[in-house]
Every structure is written in structure tokens, then in C-alpha cells.
Write a structure and sequence with these properties.
With 169 residues, this protein is of the alpha/beta class. 30% of the residues lie in helices and 19% in strands. A seven-stranded mixed sheet has the order 4-3-2-1-5-6-7. The model has no long low-confidence stretch (mean pLDDT 93).
């Protein structure tokens, strides 16, 4: 992902406290390591039709404490493999947030109160804003540290380390 890339897609809205077992049910996590297969079950416990509706580039939009629960990396990976370009939430569980960045999935903290299902959004990570094109509104993004932006720009921590060999201190 280009560091200045603008992401655009439709909103799929969820509430507060979406835990990692809602993102990918435990009944699937240990049956396969194929993330594309697991992605077919993304969010199915709270929205059985999510995978059928989501289009590449769309967004998951949530309230507070998104990604609470277990620390398994499958949760952000299945979201990414489902085609979601970013998760927007009022707040994130700390471990999920870091796992998302490490896996190359933008986790965007912002006010999501005015976003409704189906709204067309434009997220500009570099400029630090979310534009709701459907409603004509805008929200500021809590800025990410430069190192996290660099990790996202490379597609995740592993890709970053392969390319750069480490971090400059």
C-alpha cells in the first residue's frame, strides 16, 4: 500500500465489543490454515451474509473495543483476505490493533457515529481523514506513528523486515 494511498469502498457497520470469535469463529480457526478459506466465514456469527456482500476495498466500521478477546492473528488476516481494505472503529483492543498493523491491515481510529451501512467512504491515511461521500461529512483519523505507516506501506511487518532488514533507531 502506498503511504499516501486513498482507500475507497462501502461501509459494513457493526457495534461495540466485536470480539475475535465474532470475526472468525473458533469452530473454524483450527480446521485450516488457508486464510482464503477462513475468510469465507469472516463475521458470520453476527452477519451470516457478510462475506457474500463484501467487495474488495470495502470497510468494516465499528464502535468501541473492536477486536477484543483472543490475541490470535487469524482475526485481522481473515478480514484482510475477505477483501476489506481497513477497519474503522472508535477504539480497538490493543492486541488486535497491533496484529492488524503487523499484518498490513489499517486499523483506523475515528468517530464512526455518523456512518451507516452502505455509505461510500474515502479514507486518506496520509491526510488523516475519513470522508463519508454518501452523507457529505468528514471525520479526523487518530494519526498513526510514522513507523506504523511504513509497516502498512510495505504490506505488513514481515514484508517490511524482508525489505529493510530491521528498524533504524
Amino acid at each position: 500500500m502506498d503511504r499516501d494511498m486513498i482507500l475507497r469502498g462501502k461501509a459494513h457497520v457493526f457495534g461495540d465489543d466485536v470480539n475475535t470469535d465474532y470475526i472468525i469463529s473458533g469452530k473454524y480457526k483450527f480446521k485450516t490454515l488457508d486464510m482464503d478459506e477462513l475468510a469465507c466465514h469472516c463475521m458470520e456469527d453476527i452477519d451470516p451474509d457478510f462475506y457474500a456482500r463484501v467487495q474488495p476495498g470495502d470497510f468494516i466500521v465499528a464502535g468501541g473495543n473492536f477486536g477484543c478477546g483472543s490475541s490470535r492473528e487469524q482475526a485481522p488476516l481473515v478480514i484482510k483476505h475477505a477483501g476489506v481494505s481497513a477497519v474503522l472503529a472508535r477504539s480497538f483492543a490493543r492486541i488486535f490493533f497491533r496484529n492488524a498493523i503487523n499484518k498490513g491491515l489499517p486499523a483506523v481510529e475515528c468517530d464512526t457515529a455518523g456512518i451507516e451501512a452502505g455509505d461510500e467512504l474515502e479514507v486518506d491515511l496520509g491526510a488523516g481523514r475519513v470522508r463519508n461521500l454518501t452523507r457529505g461529512s468528514e471525520a479526523e483519523i487518530t494519526p498513526l506513528p510514522a513507523v506504523m505507516m511504513d509497516i502498512l506501506a510495505e504490506g505488513g511487518l514481515t514484508a517490511y523486515l524482508r525489505k529493510h532488514g530491521g528498524f533504524e533507531l
